[in-house]
C-alpha cells in the first residue's frame, strides 16, 4: 500500500438491536463506546432500529442516530421491517458527505424482509465518488441465493464499472457461497484475499461460523484489522469485522 493514498478504516457489525446473545442484556451504550474506540471512517450496521411509531409507549432512542452522535456527521438508514411499532434495518455512519442514499428491497416471497442500503459519498479533492452498500441477507439458503442475485444486478445497474465500491454486512453465508456469486461483478472479500478464507464472526463469544463480510472493488489496497475478543464478545451475538482500505489517486 502506498502512503500517499487515502486510507479508510471501516467497521461492520450486526448489533442485534442493541442486545447480547439470547437478548439477555441491552448494551447500546457499551456498543457505542466500543464502536467509537475503533475510530472508523465508515461504519456499517445491521439490525439497528430506526424511529419508532409514536404510539409505542416505551420509545427507545433511534439507535443509528445515538451511535453516530457528535462523531459521525453523516448517516443513512434503510428500514427493512416493522414489528410491534418498531422498525429496524441497516445503517451507514460516515465521516464523508453522503450525496445520496437509497434502500432497495432484496426479498422475494415470504420471510423476514431484507434490504440493501446504497450510499454515494463525496470524497472531495477531485476524487471519484465512493459507493458503499450495507446489507443483511436471509437465513435460508434459497432466499440468500435470490437476494444475492438481486444484489448483483443492483451493482451492475447502479455502480459505474470504474467506481470504487465497498459492500459490507451480515451475509448469513455459512456455506461460503457468496464470494463466487459476487465475483462476476468484481467484488473480492478482504479477509478471504488476505487469509484464504472468510473470517469467523458468529457467535461472538466463540466464533465458529463465517457470516459477516467486507467486499471491495476498485480500490488501491485492503487489509483486515485485528479486533480483540473483549469487549465485543459481550456486546452482540456477532463479532465485528474491520479493515483498512486505500482509495486510488
UniProtKB/TrEMBL annotation:
Spell out the Gene3D superfamilies in the cross-references.
Endonuclease/exonuclease/phosphatase
A family per Pfam: Exo_endo_phos
Q: Which GO terms describe its molecular function?
A: endonuclease activity; hydrolase activity
Keyword list, A-Z: Endonuclease, Hydrolase, Nuclease
The answer on whether this UniProt entry bears the keyword Hydrolase reads: yes
Q: Which InterPro entries match?
A: Endo/exonu/phosph_ase_sf, Endo/exonuclease/phosphatase, GPI-anchor_lipid_remodeler
Q: Which residues form the Endonuclease/exonuclease/phosphatase domain?
A: 28-238
SUPFAM superfamilies listed in its UniProt record: DNase I-like
Has keyword Membrane? no
Which PANTHER family does the entry link to?
CALCOFLUOR WHITE HYPERSENSITIVE PROTEIN PRECURSOR, PGAP2-INTERACTING PROTEIN
What name is this protein filed under? Endonuclease/exonuclease/phosphatase family metal-dependent hydrolase
Q: State the organism's lineage.
A: Bacteria, Pseudomonadati, Pseudomonadota, Betaproteobacteria, Burkholderiales
